[in-house]
Every structure is written in C-alpha cells, then in structure tokens.
Amino acid sequence: MNAAQKLLFQDQSFTNRFHTLGDDFYSHQMPTALLNPQLIHINPSVAKLLDHTASELNHDQFRDFACGNMTLQQSQPVATIYAGHQFGHFVPQLGDGRALLLGEIKNSRNEHWEIQLKGAGTTPYSRQGDGRAVLRSSIREYLCSEAMYGLGIPTTRALAMINSEEEVFREQPESGAVIVRLAPSFIRFGSFELFASRGQNDQVKKLADFVISHYYPEILEQALENNSNPYPLFLSEVVKKTAQMIAQWQSVGFSHGVMNTDNMSILGLTLDYGPFGFLDNYQRDYICNHSDHQGRYSFQNQPAIAYWNLARLAETLLSLMTIDEANEALSTYESVFSPLYMDLMREKSGFFEQHSDKTQLKDQEVLILALLNLMEKNQVDYTLFFRQLSNLNSNPAASQSAPSGVSASSAIQQNSPIMSRDLFLDRQAFDKWLVHYQQALEKAPMAAEQRKQKMDKVNPKYILRNYMAQIAIEKATEHQDYSEIDQLLTLLQSPYDEHPEMSHYAGLPPEWANKISVSCSS
Questions:
Q1: Nearest to residue 395, comparing CAs of 412, 407, 409, 408?
Q2: Rg (Cα) of the chain, in Å, rounded?
Q3: Interior CA angle at 446 toward 442 and 449, to 5°?
Q4: Alpha-carbon distance 262 to 272, whole Å?
Q5: What phi, psi does 287 have (nearest 5°)?
C-alpha cells in the first residue's frame, strides 16, 4: 500500500455502491494521465468531510490521485450513462463525457461521499469531446459550489483543483484542469430517462430501489407502515427537495443557466456549474448563458422549468405508479415552492413573525412584489439593496417624530444609516414604498438591532459575482497566482459575515463586469 493509500484510507472503507447496479448503468473507464499536474488548491472544509485536513492531503500522491494519474487499488472508476432533455429536446444517450466516479468514502459520521473527477479524460460518452475541463471553468465551479454551500443551498461540493501544462482547445487554447467533486450521489433525472426511453422498466425499478434504499430510507419505512406504494412517495420527495432548492435559488438571485434534465439531481442538489450567474441588478428576464438564445433558462423561468423537468422524471416512473399518483406527487411542487419562496422573501424584508393573520401576510406579499417591480424598473442591485435594508431604523417612533414640514419617509432616512435609497433612480417612488414598508414593520414590532441581526443572517453581504470569479481566473491563468481563489473561498463560505478586509467585494460591480460573457463552453 503506497503513501496516499495509507493516508487517505487507512481507517476508512473506499467502496462504490453504484457498482452494485451493474454494467447497464455505467462503463468502466480509467482516467487519462494529465501532463505535469499541479495541485493548486485543497478545500479545508470539504477535506473534513473525508476526515482529513488540507495539510494531510497536500502531497504529490494525493495530487496524482486527484487528477487521475494514480488509481488506488480499491477504486474502480466508472463513467455513468444517462439521457436527458437539453433545451427542451430529448437526447436519447448522454453520460459522463469528462467525469469519472472513483468510489465513495464513509466518514466517521456515517456519511457516504462519492468522489468524482471532472476533467479526467475521454469516456465512452465523450461524443467527440476531449474529456477535459479547463482551468477557467474549473475555478468558477470550485468557487460557486462552495458559495452555494455558504448560502445554505444544497449543492455538490468541491474538494480540490489541479492545473496542468496540458493544452486544451475551446474557443482558444487553455490549460487542462481537474476538479474533485463530492456528493452523496451524482444520479440525475436523466439516469431514469435513459432506461424509460428504452422501455427497460426493470432497470428503472432497480435504479429507483437503489436510490430509495440508500438516500430515502424513510420512504421504505413509511410505505411498510401504511402498506402503500413507495414510488409515489419517492417522486413526491424529489419534487419537494427540488422545489425547496429552486425557492432558495430565487431568493438569493442565482441563475443556473443550463437546467437540462441531465443537470437535475435526484437528491435536490445544485449540480453541474456551467454558465451560472448571480443577479447584479434585479432583472426577471436575466439570461446568464449567452448560448441560451431563446431565454429558456432565464432567471424568471427557473421555477417553471424545474416543474417541467420533474414532469419528465414522473413520466419515467409510470411503470411503477399510476398517472393519478404521479400527478398528485407533482402537485406537491407548487404547494412547497410558492409558500417557501415568499417566506424567504419576507425574512429578507425583515418580517419574522410566525403567527401573522392572512391579511397581514397578503399585505406583506403585495409590498414585496411592489418592491421587486420598483427594483427592476430602477435597475437596483439585488444583493446590495437587501443587505442594506437591514440598516433601516425599525423604531415606530421614527415616523411619528418627523419635524414640521418633513415627510415621514424623510424622517426615516434621517433616523437611519440606510443607503438603499441611493440605489434608486426614482427616489420619490422609493420613498412612497418606504412609508408603506415602515407601516408594515410597525404591525410586527421588533427591536431595531434584533431585526438587523436576523436580516443579516438571511441577506448575504457577499455573493460570487462574475467579475470576482474573473479576477481569480485572470490571476491564475495569466500569472499562476492562485491566492485570489483562496481568499474568495474563505469569503464565500461565510457570506453573511462582515469580512471588513474584503468589503470592496460588497459594493456595486465595476462597469467592465457587464462585458463578461459565459456559455456552455468549458
């Protein structure tokens, strides 16, 4: 046993439960060696998931393992096969064209983490591709998966990143890279679509049983207890988890960019970071992927697209349930998404009371929707506004103590350090909204400092704006300087904290940020 094996798996079982599904579900594939690999970053918080520290992994043997230049004896790398609807059109066979599942680790907390290399070379599903990732897109995924985790949104994780001297051509020559990803499972909606489209219902059932057994064991218990069909319960849980994830996306202004069914996780994880983007100015029709010419995956379309994708998943399971059962499970989506999204927006706006009457809740909803309309009309920065909104003095007396001849809204401005008003071109319209907002706060009184603390826990000060990733990319690709990756990772893993030394990343993006264009090319 070599040094890496002793270090990585001395007291752990390195297995691959996915293997038990059989050869119909994957192809055995060894990684392709990478030319002169360089380990440029290890994520300490993800290393802990494998019961290691970053320093324990910072050696040549781990580098070679992490880029595919060395395969451990226990590992049997596979590329998984799946199908998918891409931009609404069904593609009957896709698969891991540049990703390899090495196996999984069971940690000391009894958690199973699959380890996958993205960029490890060609597979049977590469479709004339080179099987490589490039450093540019690897940095974006590395940072964003951890940014999403920091925001509390379910996601795959990023353990390490390797650069190399291998030249990969995209729109221009770039350096080949590998990112090490972790997740409890990388199974997608498209995994079910493949077998259902082929009429292989036994494989559909086998896959469903595998997922339920390993990732939704409570469903089996519930089905046995009630003597019911477990598969509608399974679909309902996937619908619920997906709805919750999308509500969180919308509340933080995250746009995925390529919501194909093969990019949808069966566990409700944010999966496959490509041309993603966070909103700068609030813009409902924001399209972060310049390859999406029709705007199918625009920000405002994400909730409907997620439901459409879930309907495609439901179709694959019709050999295991009736249409009525499938439709009932799908109906869970709206009942989960809409209330959760509005609850998240209420909290972002400072409304934390748990027992408001329906009229009060409706008034808050109207107020929030009016705010979003006003923000869009005035091109107001989404993240910056809500973070600054917590500075508003919520003392009801503020609107009652206005000097003669001074409006209540002006008094509010004078009694708080809020800067949000300066973000609006039409400040008079914002002042009118502010009066109604203050009145709504007075109906749910809370100490100003307490409200601010609670709002700052749900409104991030920092998000991964495209220009921030671009700075890290340019330093890495042009100067082999990876320090920005480390700084941004630390910042984004705790985005609700102040980080005064990084406050320059909490303001409006620079003008040149508007020229950044991202696509599916990686």
A1: 412
A2: 24
A3: 125
A4: 9
A5: -120, 115
Q: Is the dihedral of CA 375, 379, 382, 388 positive or negative?
A: negative
- The identity of residue 243, as a single letter, is A
Report the catalytic residues: 262
H and E: helices and strands count for the chain: 19, 13
* C-alpha closest to that of 110 among 176, 49, 26: 49
DSSP 8-state secondary structure symbol assigned to residue 188: B
- Residue listed under structure tokens 């409706």: 362
pTM of the model: 0.93
Task: Give residue-wise pLDDT tens across range 397-419.
Answer: 443 333 333 343 343 343 334 46
CB 260 within 8 A of CB 86: yes
Distance of alpha carbon 118 from alpha carbon 140, whole angstroms:
13
Q: What are the pLDDT digits (tens) for 142-185?
A: 999 999 999 999 999 999 999 999 999 988 899 999 999 999 99
Q: Helices in 444-482 by DSSP H: which ranges?
A: 448-456, 466-479
Half-sphere exposure of 313 (CA within 13 A, CB side): 33
Axis-axis angle for helices 230-252, 302-316 (nearest 10) = 160
d(CA 364, CA 342) in angstroms, rounded, equals 9
Take residue 217 and report the two structure tokens written for it: 């064991």
